[in-house]
Design brief:
- This protein starts with a helix and ends with a helix.
- It is built from 18 helices and no strands.
- By secondary structure, the protein is mainly α.
- The protein has one domain (2-444): Up-down Bundle (Growth Hormone, Chain: A), CATH 1.20.1250.
């Protein structure tokens, strides 16, 4: 959970410090773009591979390698002597996060029995909520605090004690797990997957900043046949030696396929909302980064509380209705926010935003934890790393698509009041995407299944019940 929190915070904490970084290092606008985009691209491109490496070489081992590498990369970022070193260190950070993050969900899935996973995923949802809005607040506190005269550098250096603690605790308490049958890394599949991801993610990450030149659309369109070629190759690879990079049979599991679709669409909604919300407070209302960060505290608390309740108490009784209630609750919160923004305009106060933010946060909390549980509930344990990598990759793609769509749904004609007025229109688009999320949730299982050991495997691969494979199952 510490690793997931570090990654979530690191994605958002940098944005607050960008002006200070630019002044201190004399970075060009292009270099500043790569400080954020480089991390996102390396992270997205490596997630599927990182998840599969955990299945092959051990999830604990890959987790520790990822945490160690992420900590070293954070130190390099914090002590960067120029923009080139900072960009390179951020790319390394993203690559190490791609090794670290997929192991979090796969370790939970492989280590805990089904009836206990709900509590863990509830905690995971709380961590997601805290990480989503803690980054800007923490970034503002560290940057404006100018600890030891280091300026912006503590936003990276704070990862050092956290990373060291994660290494020590992970080494002591995480149980090693890997796929029960020998798998090999599909190197050609890695190459094709990385190329396809970069062809899609690079223009999504940079397009809005570059005013969407034609090559962005050409590259995104070109990613479609590359993804198709990847799927065709993975099918042949699975038939030939049973060691594909992505286990495509997972998509025959209704809960997994439906959950991935919901995850992608939900990621779009979050990508649009968080960026537009930040621009609204800082550029529209003229608030400081610290005030904007503090305003988000009620949202974070609501997400954490609702996430803990949803998996442990509500989902076992009401099933997918909890997730759908979460989508409708978020839409209601958006309606409240639009009403307050229109009523108070530039004079709106932080406390007046508390109610809509609490409602939206509660709705998000009802979704994030049980959604992860629903996606992984029927996934065979030997493929948990690959599945976890896919979940994280899809969420990254959704967020990137949402960030790209901001330039379409949020087009203020100026600063101040113009930004405030555009905010309401953008939130209307977020509500529309959440309505699509609500409809997609009908494809999720109506009620959670209480699995016994091996039941999830049998749901996807009946042949695994063969007595010849019982020693492998027992070894788990």
């Amino acid at each position: 959970m510490t690793a997931a929190f570090m990654d979530l915070v690191d994605v958002t904490i940098v944005n607050i410090a960008i002006p200070a970084i630019q002044r201190d290092l004399g970075a060009t606008f292009g270099a500043i773009q790569w400080i954020t985009a480089g991390y996102a691209l390396a992270f997205a491109a490596g997630l599927i591979t990182g998840g599969r490496l955990g299945d092959i070489h051990g999830r604990k081992r890959l987790f520790l390698v990822g945490v160690g590498g992420f900590t070293v990369a954070s130190a390099l970022c914090g002590f960067a002597t120029g923009p080139d070193m900072l960009v390179a260190s951020r790319i390394l950070q993203g690559a190490m996060a791609a090794l670290m993050v997929p192991q979090v969900l796969s370790i939970v899935h492989a280590t805990f029995p089904a009836h206990e996973r709900g509590k863990v995923f509830g905690l995971f949802g709380a961590v997601v909520g805290l990480g989503a809005v803690s980054g800007p607040l923490l970034g503002a506190l560290l940057t404006e605090g100018d600890l030891f005269g280091l300026g912006w550098r503590p936003i990276f250096l704070i990862n050092l004690p956290v990373g060291i603690a994660a290494l020590i605790l992970g080494r002591a308490f995480i149980t090693e797990s890997r796929a029960p049958k020998a798998l090999r890394l599909d190197l050609p599949g890695v190459v094709v997957a990385v190329v396809a991801m970069l062809m899609l993610m690079y223009p999504l990450t940079r397009g809005a900043e570059l005013d969407w030149p034609a090559w962005c659309f050409v590259m995104m369109a070109g990613s479609v046949p590359v993804f198709a070629a990847f799927v065709a190759y993975e099918k042949r690879k699975a038939r030939r030696d049973g060691s594909p990079l992505v286990e495509l049979s997972l998509f025959r599991v209704k809960s997994f396929a439906a959950g991935i679709a919901v995850q992608l669409t939900f990621g779009v909604a979050l990508g649009v909302f968080f960026l537009v919300w930040t621009l609204y407070m800082q550029i529209g209302l003229g608030w400081s980064a610290l005030r904007a960060g503090l305003t988000g505290v009620p949202f974070s608390i609501a997400v954490s509380v609702a996430a803990g309740m949803s998996v442990q108490k509500l989902v076992p009784r009401f099933g997918r209705k909890v997730l759908q209630a979460g989508a409708l609750t978020m839409i209601a919160g958006i309606g409240l926010y639009v009403w307050e923004s229109d009523r108070y305009g530039m004079g709106i106060a932080s406390w007046q935003m508390a109610l809509p933010l609490v409602v939206m946060g509660a709705g998000m909390g009802l979704i994030v934890a049980p959604l992860t549980d629903a996606v992984l509930s029927e996934v065979p344990r030997e493929h948990s790393g690959s599945a976890s990598g896919l979940i994280n990759s899809v969420m990254q793609m959704g967020n990137a698509l949402g960030l790209g769509l901001v330039s379409v749904v949020f087009v203020p004609t100026g600063l101040g009041l113009a930004v405030v007025e555009s905010f309401s229109g953008a939130l209307g688009w977020v509500a529309a995407v959440l309505a699509v999320v609500f409809l997609l949730m009908f494809a999720l299982p109506a009620k959670p299944r209480q699995h016994v050991e091996g039941e999830a495997l049998e749901a996807v691969e009946p042949a695994a019940a063969d007595p010849a494979q019982e020693p492998a199952l027992a070894a788990r």
